[in-house]
Amino acid sequence: MDLHISLTRPGRLAADVYEQLRAAILDGRLRTGERLPATRELAERLEVSRNTVLDAYARLTAEGFLAGRTGAGTFVTALQPVQRAAAPASPLRPRPHWRALAWRPAERRGIARDFSVGAPDPALFPWDEWRRLVARQQRRRGSGRGGGGYAPPEGDPDLRAAIARHVGLSRSVRAGADDVLITSGAQQAFDLIARVLIEPNACVAVEDPGYPPAQLAFRAHGARVVPVPVDAEGLAVAALPRDAKLVYVTPSHQFPLGTPMSLARRLALLAWAERHRVAIVEDDYDSEFRFDGRPLEPLHSLDRSGRVLYVGTFSKVLLPALRLGFVVAPAPLVPALRAARALADSHGAVAPQLALRELIDDGLFARHLRRLVRTYRERRDALAGALAAHLAGAVEPVPSAAGLHAAAYFSDRRTDALAVCARAAAAGVAVEPLATYYQHRARAGIALGYGLVPARDIADGIRRLARCL
Ligand SMILES: Cc1ncc(COP(=O)(O)O)c(C=O)c1O
Predict the structure, then answer these.
(1) How confident is the model at residue 96, as a pLDDT?
(2) How far does residue 324's CA lie from ligand 1's centre (Å)?
């Protein structure tokens, strides 16, 4: 690696080189075993005589910082303790609203039965196919798509077409490739939507309980986020604030309760949005996993006034680490969303987009999804069975026909869910208190993800949890 060396003292050039190399070794920027540039090469780079560099290297070698190996070069020795130079105290501070915007998923250690919400099972990911498809994309050389240059901010056109077909078939979302923008996960879709639609201090209505990262993205862009209660049919449309400019909902599988929004409520929300000229963000994050019954129509398909932005993600069906999601947006918003993506990060990595396009178009994706649905249905049923067997009377499971997690209320409303979850963690079981997701009054309960626990281990996890109540 090229170490930056500034030569500031004419006549003391060898001392400059010596001091800066020594500082880099001491604070760990140059690590033990690292090879230094050849003296001739460094001298050329710094435009100094070779003797200047030889002097500095000789002094560092005499002091034991460097060692030369004949024919191999000069290396940093293993003798020095690493002392990082203290950074100067900085007067810089983030804008005040950033102080309240941190969100970081809990880190889990020593957890044998991990019912964390929202995580899919990496063991079910088609690693071999994916490796093959990405490698094929990366083998392409030269110009053109996948050739290594800048690509369109809205995403690869063939992937957009594949996604439009996929959501058309699986979710009856009517969209063409031009309506689809690829994003870095659903989260970036929320961020871009906020940039494009939210005026400073505009009111954004969200579900309570709801999904914190989406709410925080809206707040980061200056929105006033107002929680609206959720009942058995979904968001309480009658409680929406009159000045809302955008409503964010998870109608297919309410996050975190797991209930679907009823058809009557969907229609009421669309009518309300039309009356109040409001945009709706429909977050359809995990409804590919549908276990019973027919799915209800997405808001996007019921919408007759062009107000719904439909957001999807591959974080559940594939992997969160891929950072692949998308938004189906009304035509007047597409150019601004495309520009917002270009300004944020130009575009997403190209090879994974092309690999995903092939995965979808070759039918592998559909096959993978069918397998996931079978596996997660088994786990969902195992969880329901275990709750009935080991926690009957103590919890009331919330019915859930889709997704990767379910919720359960404690029958005794005075139960301290936080304390139960802490005891469970100590017993090797991760479950999440519903209170984490509420802004107002929470009913005591827990959310249980089944993405990470094989069906055979679920009963053991719930037995351990039962002992913590
Ligand atoms: C409600 C909800 N929306 C969206 C997502 C997906 O986020 P991303 O695509 O950014 O990984 C999640 C993931 O947990 C989620 O729970």
Answers:
(1) 87
(2) 11
